[in-house]
Structures are given as structure tokens and as C-alpha cells.
Amino acid sequence: MSLAATPRTDGACALAAPRRAWRQRLASGKLAAGLLIGALAAVSTLGASHSALAAGPLDVRIGFVSPLSGDYANYGRDLQNGVQLALDEANAQNLKIGEQTAHFELVPIDDRSDPRLGVQAAATLANQGVNAVVGHFNSGSAIPASRVYESAGIPMISPAATNPVITSQGFANTFMVIANDAQNAGIAGAWAVDVMKAKRVAIIDDRTAFGQGEADVFERAVREHGGNVVAREFAESVASDFGPQLAKIKAADADLLYFGGLAHQGAALAKQMKTRSMNAQFVGGGGVANTDFTQGAGAAAEGAMAWEYGRPLAQLPEGPRFEQAYKARFGTDVLAYAPFGYDAAWAAIHAMVNAKSANPEVYRSALKALAFDGVTGRIAFEPDGSRKNGASTLWQVKKGMWVPVTTRGG
């Protein structure tokens, strides 16, 4: 989901004063409260003043970073809609954080899947003192941005970025509500050998932190299960011509081709495989099993497979309700990761309510200990912040539609 060429970024340098943002907000809040209490004391008692203050709303700002323009904007808008739906529902419930009714506001920033812009977005949100961040979409942006949030002490909850590096850095403020590549691509690699009985496996990735990362895990799992990788190719994430790579793969007589990248490139790859009369089974990783692929690939989509994160919404208790609410609110169907965006937002909300505070220094421990039933299943975190028991589902295109075949994990 992202550019692999992640720039070296020091989170402390990205922020002018990363850890001062919250202290400044708290200090200014205390000063304002003191002035107001002083004014009220002229006409009332201190107790009455305190009650009046406690009754006021608590503004909670949830940062959000994703591509909202450019090639991946459809994924970004889908994610944003999922987060917004969660905040809308929370506001309608008049939830209380401590003694105050909370009002949740979304603060979105477009990073165009660019690591440099992702770091800038993280610095902006940290300096604004947001209460939590849901993001980023792509791993190449999420990895360097996570360093900024760690320096600022603000939790980042990833709804879509899946490279295991994100939660393996030893940070206290990094969480995932989605299975990581070690889970999803690892399952795919084992399945290719043990179930599909593939004898000659080929791999293409888009050289992003996401695509290359899951392709690496897939290859490792294939080899660990005794499989034979006959070709490992790559194309840049903006490429549309796979001729040179497919020529090598066809010459290697591969019987299964795994693609690490997103749907629009996967569709082009599937079409070009059909044009070259290749019989290898196409298998995509995360971000392929959606309508972008079936519409882009056309007739060549038939029979294609992909391992996608999570369980089918239709098989989850809250899935159908979420799909209906999403379409009613935004006038379109769920594309891919909106349910994870929804659950990421609710993870932050539940932690704040449980801790009775929107201050990250207070609610972080509640977030680490969190366990609740979300749209995508049971949400709970491992000690490193990755999701416990992440699930993966194998999908296949049948009569132009993605149909679930089997689910592993979860």
C-alpha cells in the first residue's frame, strides 16, 4: 500500500516540540478554567462554578491520515467514511468521558500515499495536539509517521497499513486493528503449497513497503513448506506494463503467480496474463479482492483468487448492519477497509470512555488492555500493539463476483 523508499526520518526532528503539544493544551486549559472560575465566583459559589464547567462538552479530535487524492484516493475515502461513521454514532449516543459529554471531531489530512507527506501530516496532527490518530493507509507512510506519534505520545491505530515493522519497533503508541502481513501472506504461502499443491511458484510485487513486504512473507512461507519459487519479479507501483516480467514467468513454467500490490495493478496483470495465454493461477494479496479488480480486469478476472484481511462482513454479527448504515450514510458500497477504520475509531473511543480521559497519557493503558466486539470481530491487542488473532479470507472471482472460499485464523 505504499512506497518502499521510506525516507530516514527522526520523529523528534519532525516536531518542533513533540511532547509539549499536550502539555500546552493542558496548561492553556487550566489557565482558561481558572479565569472562568474567578469570574463566576463574583456571582456564585466555587461549587456551582465547578458544576457548570463539568457540564460543558468535551471536544475530542481524532486525526486521520490517508490518500484522499491521487491513485489511491478511493481507498482513502472508503477508510475516512468508516471512521466518520463511528464518530457520528458515538456523538449520537452522547457518550461521557469522565463527567463531560464528548463531542468527537474528525481531522483528516491527505498524504497521497507519500512517506514524506505522511511524516508532515503526523507532525501537523501532533503539534495540534489531537487526542488520537487513525491511519495511515499505506505502510511506507505509516512506518516513519509512527516515529513522530511515538515522540509526541499520541496513539496511532492502523486500520490498513499491515507491514509487521509497524508494531515491531517497540513503540508504546502504535496499534493495529487489522491482521498484519506475517499473518495474511504467511497463510497464503502455506496454502499455496499445502492445499493448492503448487509446484512452481512465481511472485511479482509493486516494490512498496506493503507489496514487497507481503511478497517477502509469502515467499518465505512457500519455502518453509517445501515449495519451489521459480521466479521473483517486481514492477514499480505506477507501472502498467508487465510484459518483461510475464515473459520470464511464462518461460519458468510457473503454475501459480502471487501478486503483492493493489487491485488496479493486479487487474492489469491478470489481463496481460490472459493475453499471453498463461495458465498460472493468479493469487493476489491484500487490497485485491474488490470491485476495482473485477471492473479493471473484465473477463480476465474470472477464476482469480486473493487472500484478504479479515472475515467476510456477511459472516460477522455486525457486518450486515454496518454495510447498510454505510450505504445509507454515504450512498455507496464498502470498498475495502472501511470496517477496519470504523473499528479503529471505536477502539480509541472505548479506551477514552473506560479511562474517563481523552488524554493519551491517561487512556493509553486502557487502549492496551482493550477488548470489545467490533464489526470485524473481536478487537484486542498483543503486547506490541498488533491485533490478536487476525483472520484472513481466501476469495475467488466467480461469474464476475468475489466469493469467499475459506477463512483461516481469527
UniProtKB/TrEMBL annotation:
The keyword Signal applies. InterPro entries: Leu-bd, Leu_Ile_Val-bd, Peripla_BP_I. Keywords: Amino-acid transport, Signal, Transport. It holds the Pfam family Peripla_BP_6. Residues 60-399 form the Leucine-binding protein domain. The keyword Transport applies. Belongs to the leucine-binding protein family. This is Branched-chain amino acid transport system substrate-binding protein. It comes from Paraburkholderia silvatlantica.
